[in-house]
Write a structure and sequence with these properties.
By secondary structure, this protein is of the alpha+beta class. Strands 1-2-3-5-4 form a five-stranded mixed β-sheet.
Length: 380
C-alpha cells in the first residue's frame, strides 16, 4: 500500500511540474511579445508571473491568489485599453486564470461564492480580449478566451458534482452505520440490564437464606453495571440518529466461525483461526459485534471484487494492548474497474464503526500483491 501511495504522489508531482513548465513556456512567449510591442505590454508578463505564483500557492491561498490575479489582470486591460495601445492578451496570465477557475469551482465553499468568482473571471477574461485589441483582433481574442473559460467552468463544475456525490454517499453510509450501532446499543442494554435484574433477584433470595453471600452478589451487580456503562459510552459517542431497533441476540465469537463456514460453503474456502487467549469474556460485546461486521464486509468484498480468488485467510489474535482481525484473499487481484473508482463505501462504513470504538482500520494491497483488511481494537 505504501508503494501505491508513493506512485500516486509522484504522478501528482510530475503533473504539477508539467503544468508549471507549460505556464513558464507561455510566460517566455509573453516576454518575447512584450519585447516586440513594448510600452504597457510589459505589464502582461508581470500578470503571468503573478498567475504562476498563484497556481503554485493555490492549495493554501486559493481565493487570495485568484482575487489578486483577477484585479491585476483587469487593471492591466484597463491601462492598455484606456491608452489605445496595441496590446496582446497574456498567455501565461490567461492559462493561470483558467486553471484557478477550475480549482475554485471544485473546492471553494459555499458553491455560490465559487460561482461568483468564476463569473468575475469571465468578465476579466472578456476585458482582456477586448481591451488588448492587437490589430483589431479583440473579437477573436474574446471568442478564444470565452471558449477556454467555458471548458474550465465545465471541468470545474463536473469535478464539483462528482465530489459532492461522493460526499453525500459517504454521509449516507455513515448515517446507516450509526443507525446500526443504535440497534446494537439496544441489544447491549437489554443484555446487561437483564443480567443485572437476574442477579438482583438472586441476591434477594440468597439474603433470606445466606446473608453473608449478599456482598459478593452486590459486587457482581456493580461490575455488570460498570460494564454496561462502558459499552454504552463507546457506542453513544457516535450515534446521531434515532430509529426503532429490533431485538436480536448479541454477537459471539461462534458467530464469526459460522459466518466463515457459510461463506466457504458458497464461495472460496476460508481458513479462519482464533488465537489463544480469546473468548467471549475477553472482548467487549460491541467489539465482537464490530469484528463480525468487518469480517462480513471483507468477505463480501472478496466475493464481489475478486471472484476468482482461490482461498481466503482470516485470523483473530491478541497482541500487547490490542486485538487484531486480519483478512487476506489469495489467488486473484482486485477488479481494476472497481479500483479506478477510488474505493467502495463499504470500507467507509467499516472504518466508521472501527474508529468509533477507538480502533484503526487498514485496507489495501500488500507488497506480495494480495488484498488485506486489518482491524485493530485497543484492549482496556
Amino acid at each position: 500500500m505504501g508503494d501505491t501511495k508513493r506512485f500516486v504522489y509522484w504522478i501528482r508531482r510530475l503533473s504539477e511540474l508539467a503544468m508549471v513548465g507549460w505556464l513558464g513556456l507561455l510566460l517566455m512567449i509573453d516576454m518575447i511579445a512584450a519585447y516586440s510591442v513594448g510600452g504597457p505590454q510589459w505589464m502582461v508578463p508581470v500578470c503571468g508571473g503573478v498567475g504562476i505564483v498563484a497556481v503554485l500557492a493555490r492549495r493554501k491561498r486559493r481565493v487570495e491568489g485568484f482575487t489578486l490575479l483577477l484585479a491585476l489582470s483587469f487593471v492591466t486591460s484597463v491601462v492598455i485599453g484606456g491608452t489605445n495601445y496595441n496590446g496582446l492578451p497574456g498567455m501565461a496570465e490567461s492559462g493561470s486564470l483558467l486553471i484557478l477557475t477550475i480549482g475554485v469551482l471544485r473546492n471553494v465553499e459555499p458553491v455560490r461564492r465559487a460561482a461568483v468568482l468564476s463569473v468575475v473571471a469571465l468578465v476579466v477574461l472578456m476585458a482582456e480580449g477586448s481591451g488588448r485589441d492587437y490589430n483589431n483582433g479583440g473579437l477573436a481574442f474574446s471568442f478564444l478566451l470565452f471558449g477556454g473559460w467555458s471548458l474550465a467552468a465545465g471541468i470545474g463544475g463536473y469535478l464539483r458534482f462528482q465530489q459532492e456525490r461522493r460526499t453525500e454517499a459517504v454521509f449516507s453510509v455513515r448515517r446507516a452505520e450509526r443507525l446500526e450501532l443504535a440497534r446494537e446499543l439496544h441489544d447491549l442494554v437489554a443484555h446487561h440490564i437483564t443480567g443485572i435484574v437476574v442477579q438482583a433477584q438472586a441476591a434477594k433470595t440468597v439474603a433470606e437464606m445466606k446473608p453473608e453471600a449478599v456482598v459478593p452478589a452486590l459486587d457482581a451487580i456493580a461490575g455488570a453495571g460498570a460494564e454496561a456503562l462502558t459499552s454504552m459510552r463507546r457506542l453513544v459517542s457516535v450515534l446521531r440518529a434515532e430509529d426503532e431497533a429490533e431485538r436480536r441476540p448479541g454477537t459471539r465469537l461462534a458467530d464469526l466461525r459460522i459466518l466463515t463456514d457459510r461463506f466457504s460453503a458458497g464461495g472460496p474456502k476460508v481458513a479462519f483461526e482464533i488465537g489463544q487467549g480469546i473468548d467471549d469474556s475477553t472482548l467487549p460485546p460491541e467489539v465482537v459485534t464490530t469484528l463480525h461486521r468487518v469480517l462480513q464486509e471483507a468477505l463480501t468484498n472478496v466475493r464481489k471484487h475478486a471472484p476468482g480468488t482461490a482461498w481466503v485467510e482470516a485470523d483473530l489474535r491478541v497482541f500487547p494492548g490490542v486485538v487484531r482481525l486480519r483478512v487476506r484473499n489469495f489467488g486473484s487481484a482486485a477488479d481494476p474497474r472497481v479500483a479506478r473508482l477510488g474505493g467502495g463505501f463499504g470500507l467507509v462504513g467499516m472504518a466508521e464503526r472501527v474508529e468509533a470504538l477507538g480502533g484503526r482500520l487498514f485496507a489495501g494491497p500488500t507488497p506480495e500483491g494480495y488484498w488485506e483488511v486489518i482491524a485493530e481494537f485497543p484492549l482496556a
